[in-house]
TrEMBL record:
Pfam families: AAA_lid_14, HTH_8
PROSITE patterns registered for this protein in UniProt: SIGMA54_INTERACT_4
Source organism: Rhodococcus jostii (strain RHA1)
Name of this protein: Transcriptional regulator
Region (Disordered): 306-345
Highest taxon of the lineage: Bacteria
Record's keyword annotation contains Transcription: yes
Length: 610
């Protein structure tokens, strides 16, 4: 057990530190003294305050899943010791807790060591979770070594859990007990258990990669075609694939295979490669447990001669026979102007073709895609290109719900010009709005005037009740891809958007800024890209836009959505790194945080600065 005399000496040293700002080096280690200074510098009160509750944590994450067997073994091995075992993520947020006895559980409840609570050192001072993340090493904090007096009845032993592939800290394992039950042996136990969890993480990752590799070998051994395997950061290609397809074509195939892997439909598709070559993809999704490990695709190069055909992607099960009109949307002469001429994305070219095919025949069209992908812009530009002198009218869900029948007649029949009604946000219709939408679409279908309808739906809402009820009114559908699945189009998109906002001024994007924007996932799609370029032009209205002109979120490569406070912190870190020329030591010093804290935040926010 820990010495009571030692705890008394540490308590006296703590009291001296709080009054004088200096810690007795004979009573406390430099490590603990450094943590006290960080705690005080972060504004932690030594005698007040609560553990903040975040709530938004993933209690079913890969870390929790891989840690559970080790935690179960720990419970069995320490069942005679009143002990609480807690697992936290890389932001010091508690993910799980298990107690060996009900009594210790009740005591630990009083300090809020429970899922959803934030144990960052900057919030509650020296402890067995946050201090591990700040220092990057295991800790054994006993009694008065805790900065906050609320935690002094306890002993905390914590160890970092590293991702064995990247070396980054994924979380913290912590053992907490009352000080009278504390022993240095707990420090050894928690480090050993953390090592076991790291091995479990390695095995889990290896299982996915092994499943993908075995599927690749199995399919490649019997296939006489080019074979690719894509999963996470792993891409494999057999010798035939590397000889048939150049690097740009391989990248295009890999991008499309990833898109197909995320969907639910059968993986059997065609894409057009540069040089008007078709590639037929037939894929197999690979699972490891309940998760998708990746996809293996067999790719055939298809030669079709000079027969006119659709550009982009075609589902092989939907081929039709017979001639196609030279003026129709299926020939190159009928494509919607410049909408796809600079595109390297088969997904975008297919969307353009599908929209043009429907609007050329005045067929009702349903267009799906994530918010901000440019669904309405694509529909409108295509319609006006196909029907010069036409008009388009946009109605959102609220407008449609308020639309009276006589207004429908007036709007539909007041002109002979080709007219397109675009119904936006179909998924947001109320039951009354759905009823009016039925009548509205019926009126359009029965009209003898050149009028048609198109509707847009956010991708995640395609199965919403209002959409399902109105599906019988539509003859065709098209899907607009998100920016992350047409990243090769980013330079062309940037040029178009800069031209739109520059009004004749000479503007461009530097190579470094282009690389930074290409690494971002653009969850807001084209709309967010447009906003980012407008913000950059506000800073540099003429000339070559540099990295420092871009909004802070462009440096974020993680997929999660940051809170408002996290976004402010991210922008401050990005600016500090810019000011320090990328020197992380200088940036951490200017921000007043430990270098380890900066590294942790860079990983958590997914910040990359050239």
């Amino acid at each position: 057990m820990e010495s009571s005399d030692r705890r008394l000496r540490v308590a006296a040293a703590r009291a001296g530190y709080l009054s004088s700002g200096a810690a007795d080096p004979g009573a406390v280690s430099d490590f603990v003294a450094a943590s006290w200074r960080r705690s005080q510098g972060a504004g932690v009160a030594a005698d007040g305050g609560e553990v903040p509750y975040i709530g938004d944590v993933d209690t079913t994450s890969r870390l929790v899943r891989c840690s559970q067997p080790i935690i179960d073994r720990l419970i069995e091995a320490t069942e005679d010791l009143p002990l609480s075992i807690a697992l936290s993520d890389s932001k010091a947020r508690v993910l799980a807790r298990v107690d060996t006895t009900r009594t210790i559980g009740l005591r630990i409840d009083s300090i809020s060591l429970a899922p959803g609570f934030d144990y960052a050192e900057g919030h509650i001072g020296t402890n067995g979770v946050g201090t591990v993340l700040e220092s990057g090493r295991s800790v054994h904090i006993v009694g008065p070594e805790h900065f906050h007096e609320r935690f002094q009845p306890y002993s905390c032993s914590g160890a970092p859990i590293h991702d064995p592939m990247t070396g980054h800290i994924e979380g913290v394992l912590d053992l907490t007990c009352l000080t009278e039950h504390s022993t240095p042996m707990l420090h050894s136990i928690v480090r050993s258990a953390a090592n076991d969890i790291e091995q479990s993480l390695l095995n889990d990752r290896s299982l996915r990669q092994q499943a993908l590799f075995e599927a690749f070998l199995r399919i490649e051994s019997r296939s006489k075609t080019a074979v690719f395997a894509i999963g996470g950061r792993v891409t494999m290609a057999n010798a035939l694939a590397q000889s048939i397809f150049d690097p740009a074509e391989q990248r295009m195939i890999a991008h499309h295979a990833t898109y197909l892997m995320e969907g639910r439909q059968a993986v059997d598709d065609e894409i057009e490669l540069p040089g008007q070559r078709l590639a037929h993809l037939k894929g197999t999704r690979v699972s490891a447990g309940s998760e998708i490990a990746g996809i293996v695709v067999e790719v055939h190069a298809v030669q079709e001669g000079s027969t006119p055909r659709a550009r982009g992607i075609r589902h092989t099960t939907k081929r039709t026979t017979g001639s196609r009109s030279a003026a129709g949307a299926f020939t190159s002469s009928s494509r919607p102007g410049a909408l796809d001429q600079d595109s390297n994305s088969p997904l975008w070219r297919r969307a353009c073709n599908d929209v043009a095919a429907a609007l050329h025949r005045n067929e009702s069209l349903l267009v799906t895609g994530e918010a901000g992908t440019g669904k309405v812009s694509l529909i409108t530009a295509t319609f006006h290109h196909l029907h010069p002198g036409s008009r388009s009218i946009e109605l959102d869900a609220d407008d449609l719900a308020d639309l009276a029948h006589d207004r429908t007649d007036e709007a539909t029949f007041e002109t002979d010009a080709p007219t397109l009604f675009i119904l936006r946000r179909l998924q947001d219709l109320t039951p009354d709005g759905v009823t009016k939408a039925h009548a509205f679409l019926d009126d359009i279908a029965m009209s003898d005037r050149p009028v048609c309808a198109a509707a847009t739906v956010s991708g995640a809402c395609a199965d919403a009740d209002p959409v399902r009820e109105l599906l019988p009114h539509f003859q065709r559908s098209a899907s607009v891809p998100p920016v992350r699945h047409r990243i090769d189009d980013l330079p062309a998109l940037i040029r178009q958007l800069l031209a739109k906002h520059s009004h004749g001024r000479s503007t461009s994007l530097s190579a470094a800024a282009t690389r930074t924007m290409a690494r971002y996932t653009w969850p807001g799609n084209v709309r967010q890209l447009d906003e980012a370029l407008q913000a950059a032009l506000d800073k540099r209205p003429v000339g070559e836009i540099q990295c420092e002109d871009l909004p802070g979120y462009c440096y974020q490569t993680s997929g999660r959505t940051l809170t408002a406070l996290e976004s402010i912190e991210r922008d401050a870190i990005v600016q500090a790194l810019r000011d320090a020329g990328g020197n992380r030591v200088q940036a951490a010093a200017s921000l007043g945080i430990a270098r380890s804290s900066l590294y942790r935040k860079l990983k958590s926010f997914g910040i990359e600065v050239d």
